[in-house]
Specification:
The chain has 204 residues and is of the alpha/beta class. Strands 1, 2, 3 and 4 form a 4-stranded parallel beta sheet that branches.
């Protein structure tokens, strides 16, 4: 919900004005693509050259993308351990994404940490399901820090929406999960309070 997918390869001819207006109305802009020879695919580069013109980004002094959030989701067929200095690829993911980040900085955007996804098809189902949750959080969770408290808040907001979409036969189970989560939150809050009291005692 509240996420608009925009598949560049499905667009026969770009309408620059419409593309720029889409960017103006977004709160968080995510570039998502598979890594091709250490860079984004040609379709994204062509879109960038056509839509992100100098005048639109900063040339007229208006900065229409200022304070919007820019994230990057990149998939790769090689394990993440290969993307480091001294590794098989001898370059980091962040270094390969530097040009996109540079455009974001020029536009005065807020740059989010990148989300690299390595070898998705080789992952076990449980890993893929966890990744799905992490991906949903990347799209919709308030900007970093990605703290435990922020994750709790995100889950607390998402669970009722998810449960409401369940078939009637699964509603009871869904509510049990929500109740358990709420109880765990309360228990964790009590632990935090106890730790704070201990810290205050140590300081005294």
């Amino acid at each position: 919900m509240n996420v608009e997918w925009h598949h560049l390869d499905a667009i026969a001819q770009l309408n620059v004005e419409a593309e720029q207006q889409l960017l103006r109305t977004a709160d968080r802009i995510i570039f998502q693509f598979p890594l091709y020879w250490y860079a984004a695919p040609a379709s994204l580069k062509d879109w960038e050259d056509t839509v992100l013109t100098r005048n639109f980004i900063y040339g007229d002094g208006r900065f229409p993308l200022a304070n919007k959030e820019l994230g990057i989701v990149v998939t790769t067929g090689r394990p993440l351990k290969d993307f480091r200095h001294g590794g098989t690829e001898n370059i980091t993911i962040d270094e390969m994404l530097a040009s996109l980040r540079a455009v974001g900085h020029l536009a005065q955007m807020k740059i989010l940490p990148a989300m690299p996804i390595a070898q998705f098809s080789y992952q076990q189902e449980a890993e893929q399901m966890q990744l799905l949750i992490d991906y949903q959080r990347y799209l919709t969770q308030p900007a970093p820090p990605d703290s435990l408290a922020n994750r709790e808040t995100w889950f607390a907001n998402q669970l009722p929406k998810f449960i409401a979409k369940l078939p009637a036969a699964d509603q009871f189970t869904g509510q049990l999960i929500a109740d358990t989560f709420a109880q765990n939150q309360a228990d964790l809050e009590q632990l935090r309070d106890a730790l704070n009291l201990l810290k205050e005692g140590e300081e005294d």
